[in-house]
Amino acid sequence: MKIIIINGPNLNLLGKREPEVYGKESFEDYFNTLKTKYSTIELSYYQSNVEGKLIDKIQEAGFSYDGIILNSAAYTHTSIAIGDVVKAISTPVIEVHISNTFSRETFRHQSYISPNAKGVIVGFGLKSYELALQSFLLN
């Protein structure tokens, strides 16, 4: 099984940015833990702060991977283009968010990704990624 985690803007600052919301662990450390725990899965990771680069990566993975775990961060609430690319590809996408977006500002309650995602996982910290990964293993 081939799964890619794609993270959007500012998620490169995990462990440093608002630790009370996002935790103290860097994503790279967490990703290494996931790779060790799920060593039978071909697991890769991509992060960009640039909307177009995220779209390019989703297109690249969208016909050759078994699953995409996508945290498009703030672009979730603003990017029709990322919503469109999720709809355009054949690879299933699980939308994840570290925080509970519904307990935050009202603008975070809108997602352009959700209508085209296989599922959505919010509010379980970094564990949200593992829950998404496990959902691909169940099918």
Keywords:
139 residues; Rossmann fold; 5 strands; alpha/beta; 5-stranded parallel sheet; globular; 34% helix; 5 helices; single chain
Annotate the secondary structure layout.
Blueprint lengths: L1 E6 L11 H4 L4 H11 L4 E6 L3 H11 L5 E5 L8 H9 L4 E5 L21 E4 L4 H12 L1
Parallel strand pairs: 1-2, 1-3, 3-4, 4-5
Helix pairs in contact: 3-4
Count up the domains: 1
Number of strands: 5
Q: Kindly provide the name of the CATH class.
A: Alpha Beta
Strand order of the largest sheet: 2-1-3-4-5
Overall pLDDT: 91
| Major beta-sheet overview | 5 strands, parallel
Distance between the termini: 11 Å
Using the 3D structure, state the CATH architecture.
Answer: 3-Layer(aba) Sandwich
Q: Can you give a write-up of this model?
A:
Helix 3 packs parallel to helix 4. The mean pLDDT is 91. Strands 2-1-3-4-5 form a five-stranded parallel sheet, with helices on both faces. The termini are close together. It is globular. By secondary structure, it is of the alpha/beta class. The protein has one domain: 3-Layer(aba) Sandwich (Rossmann fold). 34% of the residues lie in helices and 19% in strands. Strand 3, helix 4 and strand 4 form a beta-alpha-beta unit.
